[in-house]
């Protein structure tokens, strides 16, 4: 007689075989030559290790290929084909990449419909952000409470938009899935190995609180990841190596300030704005200074404000101040609703020349 986990594995295998057939047909029809993982558009898939954990089959399962949500995901009966996620599986790994285009995502629904058994799903990345250009993995954690056994329902919603804010066809995705949870018996000895308030489940596997992962919940999660060799010491907090600073260790520390709009990118190293150079961006590539508010953009070339032109913005004339006089002053400027005449002119409108 099959136990519950074996029963679910058989169901996963059968249903995956059906899905795999459909996916292969769709992918080959869309682009038979390119691997969705390496072509130039959006893709989302479940990694090979995760599928093998569920079914014993080594392959990826795709949800989005070439910037298109696959038809089987949009099938109204899709959720009926999916079996219950076994209690032994506490997370699902996904991999995605945007390729050559810019896409932005929003997980607008992470909800448990049986909160007495299962907490709301937790993702290992921010709920809103930009889809990474190159393949990158993220996880959805399914934290059972462990106080009772049963089948819990949960929902996940994902909206993906283009750079112009246009939703990807087929999104927002709205999935309702099922997760088996098992009652957890107290096990103080097992709990001791779980750090950061993690707890052992009935399979003696640590279930980690939000912000931690790993076999013993010792790995903190920082997203974006710590840069320049920084270490994630607690959720969202990076410890930076000497010479770097910032929430994600993205900025450098320079002994002397970077000038003229330059940025410190690593220890004592400035990244200069266009038109400047030097260890601290102290030198201008424009030997003759830019005039009238212009900015140096290249060797002796200035970017001029509106109304001026020339290599050094020397040609042009500033717009006169707006006149409050009923009639324009001919040879003067309007001051306190009256014309103030230029030298050599007089009259209410400065229109008479002094002879």
TrEMBL record:
InterPro entries: Dev_Signal_Modulators, EGF, EGF-like_CS, WIF, WIF_sf, Wnt-inh. The keyword Ubl conjugation does not apply. The keyword Transmembrane applies. It comes from the Eukaryota. The chain crosses the membrane at residues 6-27. Keywords: Developmental protein, Disulfide bond, EGF-like domain, Glycoprotein, Membrane, Repeat, Secreted, Signal, Transmembrane, Transmembrane helix, Wnt signaling pathway. Residues 44-181 form the WIF domain. SUPFAM superfamilies: EGF/Laminin (SSF57196). Disulfide bonds join 190-200, 208-217, 222-232, 240-249, 286-296, 304-313. Residues 186-218, 219-250, 282-314 form the EGF-like domain. Binds to WNT proteins and inhibits their activities. May be involved in mesoderm segmentation. This is Wnt inhibitory factor 1. It comes from Psylliodes chrysocephalus. The lineage of its organism: Eukaryota, Metazoa, Ecdysozoa, Arthropoda, Hexapoda.
């Amino acid at each position: 007689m099959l136990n519950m986990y074996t029963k679910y594995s058989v169901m996963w295998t059968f249903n995956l075989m059906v899905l795999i057939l459909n996916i292969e047909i769709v992918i080959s029809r869309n682009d038979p030559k390119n691997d969705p993982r390496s072509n130039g558009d959006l893709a989302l898939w479940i990694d090979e290790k995760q599928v093998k954990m569920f079914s014993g089959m080594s392959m990826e399962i795709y949800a989005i290929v070439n910037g298109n949500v696959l038809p089987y995901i949009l099938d109204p009966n899709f959720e009926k084909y999916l079996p219950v996620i076994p209690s032994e599986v506490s997370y699902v790994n996904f991999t995605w990449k945007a390729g050559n285009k810019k896409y932005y995502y929003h997980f607008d629904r992470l909800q448990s419909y049986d909160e007495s058994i299962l907490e709301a799903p937790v993702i290992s990345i921010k709920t809103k952000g930009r889809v990474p250009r190159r393949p990158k993995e993220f996880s959805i954690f399914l934290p059972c409470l462990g106080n009772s056994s049963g089948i819990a329902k949960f929902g996940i919603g994902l909206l993906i938009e283009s750079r112009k804010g246009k939703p990807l066809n087929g999104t927002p995705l709205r999935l309702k899935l099922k997760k088996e949870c098992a009652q957890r018996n107290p096990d103080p000895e097992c709990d001791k190995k779980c750090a950061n308030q993690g707890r052992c489940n009935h399979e003696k596997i640590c279930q980690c609180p939000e912000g931690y992962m790993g076999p013993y919940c010792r790995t903190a999660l920082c997203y974006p990841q710590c840069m320049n060799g920084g270490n994630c010491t607690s959720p969202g907090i990076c410890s930076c190596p000497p010479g770097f600073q910032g929430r994600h260790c993205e900025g450098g520390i320079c002994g002397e300030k970077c000038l003229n709009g330059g940025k410190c990118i690593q220890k004592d190293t400035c990244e200069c704005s266009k038109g400047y150079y030097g260890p601290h961006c102290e030198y201008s590539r424009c030997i003759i200074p830019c005039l009238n508010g212009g900015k140096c953009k290249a060797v002796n070339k200035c970017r001029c404000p509106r109304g001026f032109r020339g290599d050094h913005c020397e040609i042009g004339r500033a717009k006169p101040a707006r006149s409050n006089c009923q009639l324009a002053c001919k040879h003067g400027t309007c001051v306190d609703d009256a014309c103030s005449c230029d030298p050599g002119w007089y009259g209410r409108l400065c229109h008479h020349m002094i002879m």
